[in-house]
Amino acid sequence: MIYMKKVFGLDIGSSSIKLLEIQGKSVVSAAMESNPTGKLGVDMVPAEYTSLQLAIKKIIDDNKIKGKGVVLAVPESLVFTRILSFPYMSSPELAMAIRFEIEQVIPYPVEKLEFSWEILHKPNKATSGEKMRVLVVAIPSKVSTGYVTLMDSIGVEIIRMENEVLSLARSAFIEKEVQELDMLIDVGFSSTKMVIADANEIYANYVSPVAGMAFTKIVSDVFKLPPAQAEEYKRAYGLDQSQFEGKLFQVMSPVLSTMVGDIKKVIASYMNGYPERKIDRIVMCGGGSFLKGLMQYLVKEIGIEVVGGNVFERLKVDPKLSGLGGLYAVAGGLAMEA
Predict the structure, then answer these.
(1) Which CATH number fits the domain that encloses residue 288?
(2) Where in the sequence is the domain holding 109, given as residue range(s)?
(3) Using alpha carbons only, how large is the chain's radius of gyration in Å?
(4) Nearest Cα residue to 292 out of 213, 212, 222
(5) Closest by alpha carbon to 281, among 296, 314, 257, 303?
(6) How far apart are CA 125 and CA 109, in angstroms?
(7) Does residue 227 lie in a domain region?
(8) Which of 123, 158, 180, 228 gives 20 to 30 Å between its CA and that of 34?
(9) Is residue 293 part of a domain?
(10) What is the Cα–Cα distance from 27 to 18, expressed in whole angstroms?
């Protein structure tokens, strides 16, 4: 979709705020600021609200974004995302069926939800017996209203809000001729998003609470360190078993095992539905994916090629940012669609 107004992507995470603007094949602006509140933009006290406002305004002003619209990411923890199957039906019938299904599978009053959907697969013939697959996203009205109010207070117009799963999948497949099937894993601070997709379709998605914060917390708890110092140790040594007699690795092992278990469950669920097509590779992104030794550990435990994601791979970007493409996966997906 083409908008007359210039736009940028904005990803407000619990740890950081990321901004990205792309024009053609060039990255015009890419910036990241700490989120001073640790909140996602809703359910904040007045002081937190003001603090987040100022942080967002700073990143926008510093990058001379004034007068441009925003394509905004809504964190998966604040939305309900489901891939649903339906018999072949017309658009009006599908709308009614989706509303009925939402009432059954989402534990939230349907009258307080705003929902949209995208048809992932539609059979060529109604008589084939093959089912339609539809990605349905429902967002509580109070969440969408909260984001609109927040952006209005800064003087920025929201062009569109989008859940992270869509942005993440789009960022991995800039060129439609890419044929592989990837499992995209975005390891954030408070959650890890997992998406199995190719250039044309999303097949599975899952959000795990096992993320960067879980690694930091267990190091902090076991070694009796302040969280900031535990974070420094984690970043400096990661899963290197040659450090501290392997004690840091041993401490983080339970979190690693849970993460691996979640990944294997998502893969098994996908393979149960699509046994004829195996996953080609795992693509890691997000700040937590930079944990030293994590990708090598996943290769060993899961047996699939693991690579680092880079949303800047096919874009012209400042050389200082070229190695940070994995941090901007969601923001990149937002900016590309813009």
Answers:
(1) 3.30.420.40
(2) 78-140
(3) 20
(4) 212
(5) 303
(6) 35
(7) yes
(8) 158
(9) yes
(10) 13
Number of domains in the chain: 3
User: pLDDT per position in the chain (338 positions), as tens?
Assistant: 444 568 899 999 999 999 999 988 899 999 999 999 999 888 899 999 999 999 999 999 999 987 789 999 999 989 999 899 999 888 889 999 998 998 888 888 989 999 899 898 888 876 677 889 999 999 999 999 999 999 999 999 999 999 999 999 988 875 555 678 999 999 999 999 999 999 888 999 999 999 999 999 999 999 999 999 999 999 999 999 988 888 999 999 999 999 999 999 999 999 998 999 999 999 999 999 999 999 999 999 999 999 999 999 889 999 999 889 999 999 999 998 65
Same domain, 129 and 17: no
Residues pairing with 11 in the sheet: 18
**What is the enclosing helix (H) or strand (E) of 132?**
strand 132-140
- Cα angle 38, 143, 166 (rounded to 5 degrees) comes to 85
* Distances 327 to 18, 20, 45, 228, 285 between C-alpha atoms, Å: 9, 11, 28, 20, 6
Do 117 and 69 lie in one domain? The reply is no
Q: What whole-number distance in Å separates Cα of residue 58 and Cα of residue 31?
A: 11
Q: What distances in angstroms separate CA 204 from CA 182, 198, 257, one per listed residue?
A: 11, 11, 21
| C-beta separation of 193 from 172 below 8 A | no
Residues 98, 228: one domain? no
- Alpha-helical regions (H) of the chain: 46-62, 91-105, 141-154, 164-172, 212-223, 227-237, 247-273, 294-302, 329-337
Q: Is 182 a member of any domain? A: no
Are residues 221 and 279 located together in one domain of the fold?
A: yes
Both 149 and 38 in one domain: the answer is: yes
- Examine the domain organization and report whether 151 and 135 are in the same domain: no
Between CA 147 and CA 12 the distance in angstroms is 10
Q: Do both 24 and 147 map to the same domain?
A: yes
Tally: H helices and E strands in the chain: 9, 13
Residue type, 22: I
Strand 7-12, strand 16-23: pairing: antiparallel
Q: Are residues 155 and 49 located together in one domain of the fold?
A: yes
